[in-house]
Amino acid sequence: MIINSKLLRLFRVKHAGLYHIFMLLICVLVVVIILPKEKRFKFEFEKGKVWMHPDLISPFNFAIEKSSRELESDKKEAVDAVLPVYRFDNKVTAIEQEAFRIDFDFKWKARFQEKTNRAKNFKAGIDLIDEFYKKGIIQLNNHYQKRKNADYYLTIVQNNVAASTNSSALYTPSRALDQARMAVQKDKSLEFSFLIDIIQDHLQPNVIFDEGLTQKLEQEAVESVSLYRGMVQKGELIVAQKDVVTEDVYKKIESLRKEYEQTGLFSGSRRIVALGQLIVVGITLSLLMIFLFLFRKDLYYDYRQLSLILFIVSGMLITLSWAIKVELPSLYYIPYCIVPIIIRLLFDARLALNIHILVVLIAGFFVPNGFEFAFYQITAGMTAIYSIQTLLRRSQYLVSAFLILMTYFICFAGTSFIHEGSFVQIDFINFAPFVLSVLLSLLAYPMIYLFEKLFGVTSDITLMELSNTNNPLLRELAFKAPGTFQHSMQVANLAEAAIYKIGGNALLVRTGALYHDIGKMRAPNYFIENQKKTGNPHDELTYEESAQIIIRHVTDGVEIAQKNHIPETIIDFIRTHHGNTRVDYFYQSFLKNFPDRIFDEQIFRYPGPIPFSKETGVLMLADSVEAASRALKDPDARSIDNLVDKIVNYKLDQQQLVNTDITLKDIETIKQMFKQMLMSIYHVRVEYQSMGVKIPEKPFVES
Known about the structure:
Strand order of the largest sheet: 5-4-3-6
Radius of gyration: 43 Å
Shape: elongated
Number of strands: 8
Number of domains: 3
Oligomer: single chain
Helix content: 55-70%
CATH class of the largest domain: Mainly Alpha
CATH architecture of the largest domain: Orthogonal Bundle
Number of helices: 29
Distance between the termini: 46 Å
Structural class: mainly alpha
């Protein structure tokens, strides 16, 4: 496994282009394998709408399928037509007749020892019992009573002979008892209460419901229901151009569509469909890779983040394939907006929109009414991206979900007006899938946490948590190095304002600014913003030692951040905020005092690397400008202008921004923003600006 891992790493380094192609092919093949291989019916149609395509002629004979509602109705009718089956149980008859005789003799002797009409009473009772059981006593079934009213038709099986009758032709225990009361009352010489009590005790159903046989007959009836309601012959006109798609025509077209899309497992057409999917998915994902190469090289060459992007895209398309295979009632139940939300919070809005459009375009081939589907999903996805463009509070999640739902509703209403041409005919129950889709989109937030752990990326949610000044590491910085903490806050404000103007991740810049100087906690008194008036500890050190202490705050900061599990994206700000520039104050002081000494210039240089993104580049400029501005004795508009220009031009001369995508236009915007912010901080009034330029005396305040 270790050998394979090393080989893979070597292949990735030596053949980066081939490795990207390999990743792309794997992703394309996985998606194509999962997608359903049925042919796609090329016509779009809706019930009650005009057929906008050429005349549709049947290319072959096919059966017209019943709709699910028709099929359910026919099955119900078939089940209702089945009569419940009952069997005569002769054992019950014999047992109850014998039990009546025994019970009669015992109770008569106990109650009427001197009565002489015993025989007459016995004969009257046994005759009634015989009559009831001969005709049959039934216990009515509640299920059939509700379905077929109180009395219902049934099938009685006696001696393997079946006969149909109505339950009203049989006795129920209550009917038999009523009949016994009327018969006994007619003869005043009979003991009414005595006979009725005994007869009531021996009225047990002998016509028993045969549940197993009844269910078998019902199942056979259901299975015998035809799935079809007629035939369409080859060459028959199904619908003419500009005709309205009526209910009957809709069933014919739908039957043709299903017949067309159903192919054998190993048919040639199935392989051609797979080839078409390979082309469509391949070109779409290739465009995504080209976009990353041209505009997000940092993601293109970061294999973990690239794998995450391809995983998310594949995951959504696999979910769509699953929904199609299980025949989900509506494909709008799927939370398509989860993709742009996750990509936006993990990366940026431009990439999120690009990926969302590509995913929707692929999905449009496999859903009904592809154009309408794309309209719904692209507009909702754009709303999702725009609503969390600047993430400041957790409540924005719910606001975003509400805005997505409103977008769906407005689009649904608009398309319904186009289709129906009426307010009253809109079926709002069809909007239910969109509601569930929006609720499922909220799963994006726990999924983001999982992706962060698995792929080592940092989301805006994590940045928002880290930028909270109550974070333990920031509280420690404020306690140990209060001057540095205040400096970091000001740098955060400057950098955030600048990046917001030129375009970039403002939350990332702010968070990076808050942590960029945490290494100063190791030796806070050696940095001027934390020094008190009691003295400068650099006075007791050589210039080389002082420079190394100043430089060490970068490596110390990286170490502290890693120990506290700060994400790598934030640690990059710590590494790059001085690039590979020199600690000029101590360097110039050394040259002045030891002009002839040979020394290694690297002693006075920061280890780098130089900034490699807009965000890290802006932070470097903001850090240097804010630190230098603290040395201005009498800040005014002219001195601030010159200071900002001098600092920014120095960084450009030192080639510190060559790896960033900051343009010259961006540089001018950044300068103007820094100047405005600094004048606001120092309460400079432009109309009273001083004409003098104040140059800081000790630029070693490196921050």
